[in-house]
Amino acid sequence: MENDRGRSRRVGFWCKARLKHGPEELEGETIDIGLGGILLKAHRTLPTGLPVQVTLHLSPRIRPLDRVGLFVRVLGGNQTGIQLGQLAVAERERL
């Protein structure tokens, strides 16, 4: 299931994610993912505009993917759009 959201292609994909901003940490699950960002479901959100360290646990067989991201939007309830920084070619292939 692929569709366009903004500038990048998005794919429905579930994995565990951990976000960190200073001393605050959130755990959640991805709803969809693309080269430009992720849509995340968590029990709570942070204000938009905050930079966060994003760790995606894509599979138990491979090491987690760590990226710097930016909270860009909050959707109804507990869904947050996070813009990811540019990915290297090797990281794009892992996605």
Concise synopsis of the structure shown:
By secondary structure, this protein is mainly beta. The chain has one helix spanning 89-94; strands at 2-5, 8-12, 16-21, 24-34, 37-42, 51-57, 65-75, 79-84.
Written overview of the protein:
There is one protein chain. With 95 residues, the protein is mainly beta. It has one domain: predicted glycosyltransferase like domains (Thrombin, subunit H). It has one helix and eight strands; from the N terminus they run E-E-E-E-E-E-E-E-H. It has a six-stranded antiparallel β-barrel with strand order 3-4-5-8-7-6. Strand 6 (51-57) and strand 7 form a beta hairpin. The longest helix is centred in the last third of the chain and has 6 residues, at 89-94. The two termini are 15 Å apart. The model is unreliable at 1-5 (pLDDT under 50).
Mean pLDDT: 83
Distance, first to last CA = 15 Å
Let me know the CATH homologous superfamily. Answer: predicted glycosyltransferase like domains
> In which order are the strands of the major sheet placed?
3-4-5-8-7-6
Q: Any idea what the radius of gyration is?
A: 12 Å
Count the helices. How many? 1
Tell me, what's the shape?
globular
Approximately how much helix is present in the residues? under 10%
Query: What ranges have pLDDT less than 50 throughout 5 or more consecutive residues?
Result: 1-5
Q: Count the strands?
A: 8
Overall structural class, as computed from helix and strand content, comes to mainly beta
- Largest sheet, strands/sense/barrel: 6 strands, antiparallel, barrel
